[in-house]
Write a structure and sequence with these properties.
The structure holds 2 protein chains of 2 kinds.
Chain A: E1 2-11, E2 14-24, E3 29-33, H1 40-48, E4 55-60, E5 63-64, E6 75-78, H2 90-101, H3 105-118, H4 134-147, E7 152-156, H5 164-181, E8 184-188, H6 192-198, E9 201-206, E10 209-214, H7 216-221, H8 226-231, E11 238-246, E12 249-252, E13 255-258, E14 271-276, E15 287-298, E16 303-308, E17 314-319, E18 329-334, E19 340-342, E20 348-349
Parallel strand pairs in A: 3-8, 3-9, 6-7, 7-8
Antiparallel strand pairs in A: 1-2, 1-4, 4-5, 9-10, 11-12, 11-14, 12-13, 14-19, 15-16, 15-18, 16-17, 19-20
Helix pairs in contact in A: 2-3, 2-4, 3-4
Chain B: H1 2-37, H2 41-46, H3 58-65, H4 69-100, H5 106-117, H6 125-134, H7 141-165, H8 169-177, H9 182-193, H10 195-211, H11 214-219, H12 226-235, H13 244-248
Helix pairs in contact in B: 4-7, 4-10, 4-12, 5-7, 7-10, 8-9
The chains are: A alpha+beta, B mainly alpha.
Bound molecules: adenosine-5'-triphosphate and magnesium ion.
């Protein structure tokens, strides 16, 4: 549906998007994540046609759209600030695109009402945006997009101005919308949960380049590099400094551990980063390692325990049973199969 | 509590006295003009400051008819309406472009417009006159409309640009996503949103165009606008001391400072000059 072919964006001499190749299937929900300033919004706006493309090509629905006007691309966008027209009522806001197309008032009203019903906005149609709550404005912004029945929806951090509870609610609503409309959606966020729950595929960006593209669970379980491993997952993966002890074993936190399932061989003495997720540190069997508990973040159902395995080897572990206490020294277990190894450049060793 | 309220009330009163005097200084000339305009010649000569005893509207009729004020009035209305309409239209378009669109040289254009704001009308009077004459617009209302537009446009553009800069760019982008082209964005989004600024500009420009004498004197030499008519009346050799007060009843003023007394034609000149 959307094909980005080596697109780049330069502002002055500064390259913000650097040769991105990406292909989004029809009906797919793709989420862009990455640290602030990595170019997520810019890439989205390049798809929308709001940002000129310095080099490369954008194809949408099988047509080359690199230089097409935003509207002609058949995409609709929901802005972070909603960007509702303050002087128009909700109905006029939602019907604006139809009005520009030259549709009659009656048909416009019919289409707006149909869209409003989907988003439970029926009773608000004659209000101005100023008289709406944040969540309602958000829904109007989404409504404005769906009225046009576009091929592609683009969302730029649509939920970041909402409070936590509303955010969860709207997240579910967007997921439901995607199921009923079955349109292609591209969604920018830096909220982990939104990315993991909504996405069919996640695109991790850093410094204007794609670090990895994949299903949420793939990125979580099988990251390509240190950056993706650290970026996906909260609290983030623990990285422990290690040294290869043999072709398939590493010395880490005073232990020598055999890492099963490696297809490449380690050079003995090679420095590696050993990645281990917090929830993998409290297995019931496997290699045992002592932890000195320094801080406990108690959440009720579980606790995040901060401590160190050895001097200068801090880790976070997820605790699901019992009530850990600060100052205790407890044995942790992990399964060597859960270890992820990265080389000095941060590339994954598989 | 009560003491504080009393003190507050006293300070209000202290402030009210100069305010009242100021207000009086604005209202009195209007009263004076209307009062005398209703007197007959004789009444005016006998008692300039007393209240009118036998009011007559004959003076107004004379001014309207014999002094051709009816004609001047139409000129003033047409020219002011034309110029203000054109000013609002152009300044809103240009302000939108300068504030929202990205095109090369937009900063330079904005600075050039700001620079034009610094030039007093008097400095460019001669080349301005030559230009109007050369274009064959002398003694035409269109010429005067264009002249007003030219002189008052820089400030209008500056104000609209500043106003539109305060609006989020996403509004423009949302409208583009909705399929609106440049003029449609302007018409459906920018123009309605610019209403507060346009209203202010409309009032200011109306006052300036209506009260202008200098530019009008140069461009409409034998047709005259109302203000030129009034100014001419004042200096005419006919002993029509009566016709002047009714004439000046037509005059609206932007501020009290120019209300104080009758001055030469130049007093209503460039409102933008420092
Ligand atoms: N108009 C512009 N001119 C110059 N640089 C720009 C412009 N717009 C964006 N940038 C730069 O491009 C980079 C990417 O910006 P972008 O807004 O895409 O980041 P982002 O990933 O959306 O960040 P965030 O998560 O904070 O929204 C930033 O370094 C930013 O400074
Ligand atoms: Mg952004």
């Amino acid at each position: 549906m959307i094909d980005l072919r080596h697109v780049s964006k330069r502002f002055g001499g500064h390259t913000v998007i650097d040769g991105v190749d990406l292909s989004v299937e029809e009906g797919e929900f793709v989420v862009f994540v990455g640290p602030s300033g990595c170019g997520k919004s810019t890439l989205l706006r390049m798809i929308a046609g709001l940002e000129e493309i310095s080099s490369g090509d954008v194809w949408i629905g099988g047509e080359r759209m690199t230089d097409a006007e935003p509207y002609d691309r058949g995409v609709a966008m929901v802005f972070q600030s909603y960007a509702l027209y303050p002087h128009m009522t909700v109905a006029e806001n939602m019907g604006f695109a139809l009005r520009i197309q030259g549709l009659g008032a009656a048909e416009r009203r019919r289409m707006v009402e149909a869209a409003a019903r989907k988003l439970h906005l029926d009773h608000l149609l004659d209000r101005k945006p100023a008289a709406l709550s944040g969540g309602q404005r958000q829904r109007v912004a989404i409504g404005r997009a769906i009225v046009r029945d576009p091929k592609v929806f683009l969302f730029d951090e649509p939920l970041s101005n909402l409070d936590a509870e509303l955010r969860v609610q709207m997240r579910i609503e967007i997921a439901r919308l995607h199921q009923t409309l079955a349109n292609t959606m591209v969604y920018v966020t830096h909220d982990q949960t939104e990315a993991m729950t909504l996405a069919d595929r996640i695109v991790v960006l850093r410094g204007g380049r794609i670090e990895q593209v994949g299903r949420p669970t793939d990125l979580y379980d099988d990251p390509d590099n240190l950056f993706v491993a650290g970026f996906i997952g909260s609290p983030r993966m623990n990285f422990l400094p290690g040294v290869a002890a043999g072709p398939d074993s590493v010395r880490v936190a005073g232990l020598e551990v055999r890492v099963p399932g490696l297809s490449s061989r380690l050079a003995p003495g090679q420095e590696v980063q050993v990645g281990l997720r917090p929830e993998h540190l409290t297995a019931t069997e496997g290699v045992e390692v002592p932890l000195a508990i320094e801080v406990v973040e108690q959440l009720g159902a579980m606790a995040y325990v901060h401590g160190s395995l050895a001097p200068d080897v801090p880790v976070v572990a997820e605790w699901r049973s019992g009530r850990p206490r600060v100052g205790e020294r407890v044995p942790l277990r992990f399964d060597p199969r859960d270890l992820r190894l990265f080389d000095r450049e941060g590339r994954r060793i598989r | 509590m009560a003491a504080a309220g009393k003190r507050e009330r006293r300070s209000l009163w202290i402030a009210a006295i100069p305010m009242a005097l100021l207000a009086l200084s604005c209202v009195y000339p209007i009263y004076f003009a209307v009062n005398n305009a209703l007197k007959t010649s004789k009444g005016y000569i006998l008692d300039r400051f007393g209240l009118v005893t036998d009011p007559t509207v004959q003076n107004f009729a004379d001014a309207w008819g014999r002094a051709r004020f009816s004609e001047y009035f139409v000129n003033s209305v047409l020219v002011t309406a034309g110029a203000v309409g054109l000013l609002l239209l152009l300044s809103s378009l240009v302000g939108f472009a300068l504030a929202m669109l990205r095109f090369p040289g937009r900063r330079f254009v904005f600075v050039a417009i700001l620079a034009a704001l610094m030039i007093p009308i008097q400095v460019v009077l001669v080349p301005f006159y030559r230009t109007v004459e050369g274009l064959g617009l002398l003694n035409t209302r269109v010429g005067l409309v264009l002249a007003y537009t030219a002189f008052f446009l820089p400030f209008s553009i500056y104000l609209m640009t500043a106003f539109y800069r305060g609006l989020p760019r996403e509004l423009l982008e949302a409208a583009r996503m909705d399929g609106a082209r440049f003029l449609e964005v302007w018409w459906h989004v920018m123009l309605p949103l610019g209403r507060p600024a346009l209203l202010t500009l409309g009032i200011l420009n109306t006052l300036y165009c209506w009260n202008d004498v200098l530019i009008s004197l140069l461009v409409l030499q034998d047709r005259r606008t109302l203000m030129v008519g009034i100014a001419a009346l004042r200096g005419s050799t006919r002993p029509t001391c009566r016709s002047s007060p009714p004439g000046s009843c037509w005059r609206r003023r932007p501020s009290s400072s120019s209300t104080s007394s009758s001055r030469g034609a130049s007093s209503a000149a460039s409102p933008w000059a420092p």
